[in-house]
Amino acid sequence: MTDQVVVVMPAYNAARTLETTYQDLPHELIREIILVDDGSQDGTIEIARRLGLTVFVHDRNYGYGANQKTCYLEALKTPARVIVMVHPDYQYDPKLLPQIIQPILEGRADIVLGSRMIGVSALRQGMPWWKYSSNRALTAAENVVFKLRLSEYHTGYRAYSRDLLESVNFQANSDGFIFDQELIAQAVACRMRFAEVPCSARYFPEASTASFADSLEYGIQILVLLVRYLLDRTNILPSPMFASLKSRYRQA
């Protein structure tokens, strides 16, 4: 199994939490850990190299989505069957990795989301009420548009199959935080299979937590994305963003 799983860490100023995150990973299941540093101003790079991670460094801060693009491009250069995104800020529990990868390894899913809305209430875990309310409202809207019944779309703990990342045009996505939801929309468009597992989260100063203003902007971007998706699905305004790359290859 160790040849099948690669962990990617999109990192930005994660020096305080990186080693703790690393130590809690089940290393016996992992082939390689790839960390992409997006212009950190602390000791993230030095710690990552000391821990023996495979490190790639952006020359400046390009954004969360741009960081993930590098993560997945580098992960796809390995023979891994499963690519797991683990945030190095220790907000999500690295010990849950076996549950995250299982549906993909068993051939039941192409994308697995660690949901904070299953099990112990996210509010009890410390999620701000306004973030919880917006999460639930946006998830309901996405379920209607995508015709799914997921409990949460906005988690940062995700596992992808190689087939999914080779099929969706993730390089066409935003360099910002909306990248995650664009990738989900692409996965839906490519008829990928979804699964969820319960996931707890921690809320503390070192964990990445968007402000109210950032969350408001993010919510508006999601609504725009849903409109773009619907326009593409109804052929009113088709977008190459939602086309399967593998379909293109077959047509060529």
Beta-strand proportion: 5-15%
Classify the secondary structure makeup into a structural class.
alpha/beta
The value of Rg in angstroms is 17 Å
CATH superfamily: Spore Coat Polysaccharide Biosynthesis Protein SpsA, Chain A
Distance between the termini: 34 Å
Number of strands: 7
Task: Write a brief caption for the model.
The protein has helices at 18-24, 44-50, 64-75, 97-105, 122-125, 129-146, 162-167, 179-189, 212-233, 245-251; strands at 5-11, 32-37, 54-57, 82-85, 111-115, 158-161, 194-198.
Keyphrases for this structure?
252 residues, alpha/beta, Spore Coat Polysaccharide Biosynthesis Protein SpsA, Chain A, 7-stranded mixed sheet, globular
Explain how this protein is built.
The chain is α/β, with parallel strands linked by helices and 252 residues long. The chain has one domain: Spore Coat Polysaccharide Biosynthesis Protein SpsA, Chain A. Helix content is 41%, strand content 14%. It contains 10 helices and 7 strands. It has helices at 18-24, 44-50, 64-75, 97-105, 122-125, 129-146, 162-167, 179-189, 212-233, 245-251; strands at 5-11, 32-37, 54-57, 82-85, 111-115, 158-161, 194-198. Strands 3-2-1-4-6-5-7 form a 7-stranded mixed β-sheet, sandwiched between helices. Helix 1 (18-24) links the parallel strand 1 (5-11) and strand 2 (32-37). Helix 8 (179-189) packs parallel to helix 9 (212-233). The chain is globular, with a radius of gyration of 17 Å. It starts with a strand and ends with a helix. The relative contact order is 0.15. The mean pLDDT is 92.
Spell out the blueprint of helices and strands:
Blueprint: E1 5-11, H1 18-24, E2 32-37, H2 44-50, E3 54-57, H3 64-75, E4 82-85, H4 97-105, E5 111-115, H5 122-125, H6 129-146, E6 158-161, H7 162-167, H8 179-189, E7 194-198, H9 212-233, H10 245-251
Helix pairs in contact: 6-9, 8-9
